[in-house]
Known about the structure:
The protein is an alpha+beta fold. The protein has 2 domains: 24-164 and 327-381, Periplasmic binding protein-like II (D-Maltodextrin-Binding Protein, domain 2), CATH 3.40.190; 168-323 and 399-442, Periplasmic binding protein-like II (D-Maltodextrin-Binding Protein, domain 2), CATH 3.40.190.10. The protein is 41% helix and 13% strand.
Amino acid sequence: MTSRARRGAGPRRHRVGRIAGSFVAIGALLAASACTAGGSSAPSTTIDPQEKVTLNFTWWGDASRAERYEKAIDLFEAANPNVTVKTSFSAFADYWTARNTEAASRTLPDVFQMDLAYLAEYGGFGHVAPLEDYLGGLIDVDAVDPALVEAGKVEGKTVAVTTSSSTMAVMLNEPLLKTLGVEVPDADMTWDEWDAFLARAGAAGAGSDPEVYGGVDYTAYFWLFQIWLGQQGLAFVEDGRLGFEPADLARWFSRSPALNDSRAVMPPERKAQLDGVDALGIAEVSADINWANFLPRFAEGPASPELSLLLPPHDEGQDTGLFLKPGLMLSIGANSDHPANAAQLVDFLLNDPEVAGIFGMSRGAPASKTATEGIEANSLDEKILDYQDQIAGSLDGTAPPAVKGLGTMEQTFVTVADELAYGRTSPQEAADRWFAEAEIALG
């Protein structure tokens, strides 16, 4: 999908004091094309304000994120009239399919959104430009937490800049639950209690038009599984190897059949019909577990649901497993003809207060303290901030390192979970298949 409609100026700046088979081929494709990566000459760090430059910038996301990016690009072009930025966006899965193809042909965009799951593939195989020559100059990271700067490194080189961070939360449509006559759960749920709640909500919504389900099959959520592992005292990756056994994953996947059989969660057939539309945003589910910064995206959906945030389930006596995940990252294609201008755009999207004002908390908590000066917290931002305050002392988990194969592992996870939801495989078979492919991807 291509996007570049002209937009008006962003909101005014205000300070908010407390804002602080198969998929394995992807890695092979990136590795095979790495032999053509980059030259040996030092990158240019000089900007010629008279040179007419065109940059390509792309991201994954929905229309709401696209509208915000377009406003931000308008501001950048106004401040840099010699630079034209061509933009595009797509859904997450389609986005990486396109980037993998571009990486193989050395035609990656000048600037593109990066995710922790793909950082090692792109950084390790030389498809993105090392940023050391720009940090402290064209890209100012003085106002960024050093841990978030470190998160953008692969093999000692900075290959991405983190613009935000986030963690997971339960999202509840309380007005919908009240309409259905279902008691709203409290903030201290076990996994069995969560499943029982989803079943009650699904049963109550069976007569609705359209039918309302309890939630979405959360066992397909790769990052939520990692939080669950932390609750069990296990690590996703440890000493360069998987830190758990197939039996652990099978135990996680074993929740899926009962959820689907009872229609506690949206059937995979209906989910496929939505074609990327958020079930929570159209009020066809009463709850979900997702990244807290997705709250504006869901709340601004067609049904405009009124959502609240709660701590995800965890069994009695266990840690929460929650961690701050580096959110939206930005990388520069190693093939860029204008890397200095690309670095200038990265800095703008990272640090500019007006850009932060446009996005609010929808990207997550801004990584740059300079950027946070531009946020005028609306009611949705306040909910995210309140949630962050609530869980500040409960972040006892650890985000996985940026290892090679992480993106492949995530895609395979979604694939086998989908097969499980359709009843085409068993929890143990799904776990064994994922584990076999994950070990190959990890190398």
